[in-house]
Amino acid sequence: MKIIGMTGGMGCGKSYVSAKMQLRGIPVYDCDSRAKLITATDPVLKLELTRLVGPTLYCPCGCGVMQKEVLAKFIFGNPENMAKVNAIIHPRVKEDFRKWADERKGKDFCIMESAILFESGFDSEVDFRVCVDAPLELRLQRCIKRDSTTREAVLKRIESQMPQAEKCSRADFVIVNDDVAALEPQIDALIEKCKKTLNNK
After folding, report:
1. In what order do the strands lie in the sheet with 2-7?
2. Can you give the pTM of this predicted structure?
3. Residues 6+ apart with CB under 8 A from 56
4. Tens of pLDDT along 43-88?
C-alpha cells in the first residue's frame, strides 16, 4: 500500500478533498482528530504533557479534556515550548498512524491528512505529497464562516503557519480548490499520477 500525504493551509479545503477521496474507498487518517483522541486518552502522554505544561492543562473533572487555552498560553510566542509539546505528541501520532496503516494493508492507497505535514516531519511517513490550494481571500471567507470569528483572527493564525506557497512547492501534486476549477477531474489526475509515479519507484 502506498501512502498519500494531504496538506494545505487553513481554509484551503484539504479535509473536503480527503472526504471526496474517501468516498472512492481510499481510507483517510486525520492527524488532527487522532491527535486530539490520543492526548485525551493516552495516560503516559497526558502525564508527560501535564509535567511540561502544568497541572491545569487537563480539566479537573477527570473527563480527560485538554483545556486548550492553557496549552495556547504555554506555546504562544514561544517556539521552544512549542517544540517540547510537539516532541511529546508527534511521535505518538506517528506510531498510531503506522498501526492504523498496517490494518489497511489490502488497500492500494491510504491518505494521511495533516495541516502540518511538512512542519511535523510526517511527510517522511508518506510516498506522495499533495497540497490543496485556494486564494487567500476565499480561505479567509471560509474560515470566518466556519469558525464564526474575525478576519483579523484568521489572518493571525494563517500568518503563524508555513507559507502556503512553500507547502505547494514541496508537494508532488497541487489541487486547486477555488470553487471554480472542478475537483473530480483533479482527483482523477492525482490518482493516475500517484499510480504512475509510485509504480516506477
Report:
1. 28-30, 109-113, 2-7, 128-133, 173-176
2. 0.90
3. 67, 70
4. 999 999 999 999 999 988 777 788 888 998 998 878 899 999 999 9
64, HSE (Cβ side, Cα atoms, 13 Å): 10
Task: Return the bridge partners of 141, or none.
Answer: none
Residue 65 DSSP class: -
Q: Greatest CA span in the chain, whole angstroms?
A: 54
**C-alpha of 29 from chain center:** 9
| Residue 66 near residue 58, CB atoms below 8 Å | yes
Q: Are 130 and 4 in contact (CB under 8 A)?
A: yes
SS3 of residue 129 by DSSP:
strand
Do 116 and 187 form a contact (C-beta atoms < 8 A)? no
Residue 68 CA, distance from chain mean position: 18
The DSSP letter of residue 124 is G
* CA geometry: angle 182, 156, 135, nearest 5 deg: 20
